[in-house]
């Protein structure tokens, strides 16, 4: 049974909903997702507290506008929390999570277009966030995903480095090695930092 967040994420990815768009009513969401209106209301309150939606009396609920950030701001935010996220993943991930992480790696390896490379790069990082089984972590990840999509540009050389570093991250997670996973993500983000900030004043 999908959550409200899962439903909204799917709608955004498909282009059916855009930032600032009105979200279906509680009654409609309850019918769509097979949940009670009380459950839907509670989930929307959580999403509002996380800044994912805004609620306006008499008007309804709306997807929050995406904050546009600079490359420096984005990488600073990622460096502050993603390494610790990986330490949590190494402990919390299940066998099903491992399978999804491997699927993202394999599809990323097989990708032949820039669009597919970016898609599976984002999917890999999202699979890691979901492997914490912590809805707050998943929501924080999704808050920066649109800016990552806007700011991420990969060359063939970048792709080779990313594939190697993604494998190092995944191997540490599969080994249940929190310190190794943390260190692997720190190395990866250093690579991303150099790439994103090169040529900037």
Describe it.
- By secondary structure, this protein is mostly helical.
- It folds into 2 domains: 4-63, Arc Repressor Mutant, subunit A (Orthogonal Bundle), CATH 1.10.10.10; 71-199, GntR ligand-binding domain-like (Four Helix Bundle (Hemerythrin (Met), subunit A), Up-down Bundle), CATH 1.20.120.530.
- The chain is built from 9 helices and 2 strands; from the N terminus they run αααββαααααα.
- The chain has a two-stranded antiparallel sheet.
- Strand 1 (53-56) and strand 2 form a beta hairpin.
- Helix 2 packs across helix 3 and helix 5 (95-110) runs antiparallel to helix 8.
- The longest helix has 22 residues, at 71-92.
- The N and C termini lie far apart (48 Å).
Q: What is the structure about, briefly put?
A:
With 201 residues, this protein is mostly helical. It has helices spanning 4-14, 26-33, 37-49, 71-92, 95-110, 114-130, 135-151, 156-174, 178-197, and strands spanning 53-56, 60-63.
